[in-house]
Amino acid sequence: MSLNYISLNHFRNIEALSFQPSADINIIYGANGSGKTSLLEAIYFLSHGKSFRTNKQKLLIHYEHESCIVHAKKQHLNLSIPVGISKNKQGETQLKIQGQASRKISELAQLLPVQVITPESYELFFGGPKERRKFLDLGVFHVEHSFFNAWRQFNKILKQRNALLKSRPHNYAEQIKFWDVEFIKVADQINIARKAYIERFNAYFFDKIVSQIPIFSGLELRYDAGWKEDLASTLKANFERDVKLGYTSKGPHKADFSFYINGHSIENIFSRGQLKLLLYALKITQNTLIETETKKQSILLIDDLPSELGEETMTSVAELLKLCQSQLFITAITAESISAVVEPIQREKKMFHVKHGSLTT
Ligand SMILES: Nc1ncnc2c1ncn2[C@@H]1O[C@H](COP(=O)(O)OP(=O)(O)OP(=O)(O)O)[C@@H](O)[C@H]1O
Ligand SMILES: [Mg+2]
């Protein structure tokens, strides 16, 4: 299952472009400002309905046009499934799967597991907990079908609870007590799904990855559910505090995880290059888990791979990518700069040269 046809219209600096990528490795090279990141952004947009580099979705549309379209065909066994997304300057999005209009971006996301690595993504990863939660939940979303509904339901209840804490109508304490029954039930479902996923993640990571990259031995992943012990008593104990804050301070919306080595947080130990390598290892582990558990090939976008990576780290990235069966889209300014990474991988490679928003093979 991979994309075997991609077309873009009025996306960033790309007026119109279409190509037939390899199911294995696609190398996209070209000068600064040619449109490499934009091409990856379009593939990400097709799965997530938004950009990975800006919250201003309007910027995805070419300055001189009113809307942008990304369309692709996904190969699944002998079937070719057309999928498409368009966005206009009013912010309206339209989705199409197999010719049928869809309103749910989660349907596209389910069909196309797409992840991205950029030179900056490791910073986000080792910054606030939001990005780590997003990463974790993307994995759980793909392998645990009931997770998405539980997560959506939880967010609705959380919104209600926070609104009550903020506006405090006369019977707010009773109302919160009422909502808390469901809050706890769904929070437990989310926590169980996340914990089960982390267990499977750990098993692969420590078995397959650590044996390839010795600097990772001794790493320990610590998961924080967002509360300790029993959630009912935690909510009770924090009630006065939550009233003062005007929001719920404990629960699965505060979950996080972190890596430790010899008891120290890796942010204080690992170099930038090592952190980047760990980010590669985490994304590749996740894609591999999604692929083995859902039998769907996933897509990994790697923007500007050589940026800031030394020769040895590049060799380790190659070792990691050898473990990965994802459809890869890798960008670099020159094709030569990533030959040390892609040449040792025994998979089909296609090269695409981007120049002023157009492609040549
Ligand atoms: N909405 C838009 N409409 C038209 N052009 C745009 C729009 N947004 C960005 N651009 C232009 O698109 C071009 C491609 O940008 P992109 O970031 O894809 O380049 P790149 O090939 O990744 O470059 P680099 O190697 O510097 O990362 C840039 O020249 C940018 O100024
Ligand atoms: Mg770029």
UniProtKB/TrEMBL annotation:
Share an example GO biological-process annotation for this protein: SOS response
Question: A GO molecular-function term, please?
Answer: single-stranded DNA binding
Primary subcellular site in the record, as a coarse category:
cytoplasm
Q: Where is the RecF/RecN/SMC N-terminal domain?
A: 3-343
Q: Which InterPro entries match?
A: DNA-binding_RecF (IPR001238), DNA-binding_RecF_CS (IPR018078), P-loop_NTPase (IPR027417), RecF/RecN/SMC_N (IPR003395), RecF_2 (IPR042174)
Query: What PROSITE patterns does this protein's entry cite?
Result: RECF_1
Q: Tell me which residues bind ATP.
A: G30, A31, N32, G33, S34, G35, K36, T37
Compartment list: Cytoplasm
One Pfam family of this protein, by short name?
SMC_N
The protein's matches in NCBIfam families, at most eight in alphabetical order, are given as: recf
Family, as annotated: Belongs to the RecF family.
What is this protein identified as? DNA replication and repair protein RecF
Its source organism is Pseudoalteromonas phenolica
Upper lineage: Bacteria, Pseudomonadati, Pseudomonadota, Gammaproteobacteria, Alteromonadales
**Gene symbol?**
recF
